[in-house]
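Final report, Chapter 2: Outcomes

The project's central promise was a pipeline that accepts a single protein chain and returns its three-dimensional structure in a standardized token representation, suitable for archiving and comparison. That pipeline is now operational. To close this chapter, we reproduce one record exactly as it appears in the project archive, with the input sequence first and the structure output second.
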Amino acid sequence: MGTGASTQSGENPNKYQDADENHENDDNKPSIPKIVVIPDDPQTAEKKERLSEQVKLLKSFDTFSNIETVTALDCINNVYRAERDDTGRIPLGDHLADIGFASVFVNIWKDLIKLDLFDVVSNKTAANVYFKLKSATHNYSDVSVRFCEELGKSGAVALLLSELSLPELNYHKIDQEEGSAWRRRWIKSTLGILHNAIRMWPDNRVIFRNANAVPLLMEYVKCTYLIVRAKALLNLAYIVDEDENDKIMTGGTNISFIVKMLESAVAEPDHMSKLYYFDAEELVDGIIKLAQNDQNKVTLVDCDVLPPLVQMLKEAKSCVEVKEAAQCIWTLAFHEKNKTRIREDKNLMAELKRHMHIVNDIGNGESAHKAARGALWILGEEDIVKQLEDSEQSANGQGDQSKQKSVGHVMISYQWDAQNLVVKIKDRLKAAGYKVWMDIENMEGSTLEAMASAIENATVVLICFSQKYKDSPSCRTEAEYTYRLRKDFIPLKVQHAYEADGWLGILLGTKLYFDFSGSNKVQQEMPKLTRELGKRGLLGSVVPRVQVVDGALKSSNVGKAPAGDGQPAEGLASWSNSDVANWLSNVGLGHFKNKFAEYNGEMILGLKLVASESPDFFYSSLKSDLGFKKLIDIIKFRTALDKLA
């Protein structure tokens, strides 16, 4: 869970330049946010001081179309270029975020946009200032998460998005021969900064959505210049939702184009495409975003995305590159159709098994070997992953400790960014007497075996859902393992204004959720959550003994649970509403609990009678009254109903 990155060196120092000089000498482009703590040595302190002086000077100006602004921005750009790798650049970008350069961007932009910047002859100095400003912003946003966050907060991202609707930047004019180079340079720099802002700080997505960015970016996908088209598509990868995906990616043309970009990157010794000016890491990061949609998973494999991913695993330039490639395969493997095709690729499987042994943590809980193991787990190689993790624990002196499994607990499944909120929920549950399993305390290195054991031995799983939960292959692995074992689960919403969609929406179905996403929601929602939990997970209550046999959960109780607390009472006629809900969960129809909220055992008996004596009315009622739409759900329900005594 979480994200991280490491430093790469030896890349093309002119990787963002083309015939139009998009911007100046950027190298070492990370694909994901990184956190590197570097002490301020004398050289770094001196560079930060130079940046502070120039930003302070820019803040003192009332207007910016002057040579003094050009000189100040040149200095800021020169400080960046003097550092040859990201280790030195990240603290400088973070410093610019701290001293308000994002707000300076907004002030300069608002001053210059009043002028006709497309009239380069009349406004030569203003145009020069504009591109110096964008060059500095592009460079530092390429390495600093904090700077990208500040670009969103200051309003700079919203201003850049507004440029996409300027008539002078219409893609038709960009495609024109006369004067197109100037417009092309403009839109490339804008799209480049926007891509950094959404890639490095995903929370900027709401700004893109509020600006109606999807149709605006789609216009540039029509552009004949490949670099413009590529930048537009990669921006879209981070912001499209499930409903929009089909019309954007239909037919596979755009996905095929992105795969060709990746092929172009891995064909180069440094994995930097000389044709598209993107490196393999950031391209795969965008592909992972596209692969959140299940149909895109199949289309990507159909478009031959697997060979360049295998090449990345074989020739990786960094552990981050391995992690990105393995995580992409992990994500693609969630679709059943892809599993067979991936498993049939012997080179791919061999590379995953090789990398699962190479332990190299990136940070924030991320590592290449964990991504490789996650992919293998989803591909049906659970046993070899468990054996490896067992041997590692034994070698670390944790073998005996790992065998002491927690049983009868409330398991919390969450994405790393929600940890602070989830810890508060966990602490409240413990204070109320519940036995709680959460990975920050129990996971012993966050192994897949520990995750599986935690779910197998839980009485109930709390799924703390958000956009980042949906996008995380680790979280999806946990959620789908929970569903596969038919474990009862309770959804907790931990992101404001997020509605579950895609695979997560299907898994949660129509289950009622508890909303912990707003301020002071913990205190408000906890009484409701504990009422829903009842005795499940309470210390001293009934503890189920569990085992997994052929992928199915088998359980037996120590003692007898009372009716309504997770186990049906003797005799169908005596079932309560809660018993009906538990039965639906056990037969894989938990998403219909709301529809059956008023049903008890006697009413289920009545349904059996209707099904027997008037099947046509029974099936029409399932559709009209109880919301059954899929044939497979109707079959499941009728089969389960017939098995009831």
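Archive annotation: The first strand starts at residue 361 and ends at 363.
This record, like all others produced under the grant, will remain available to the consortium after the project formally closes.
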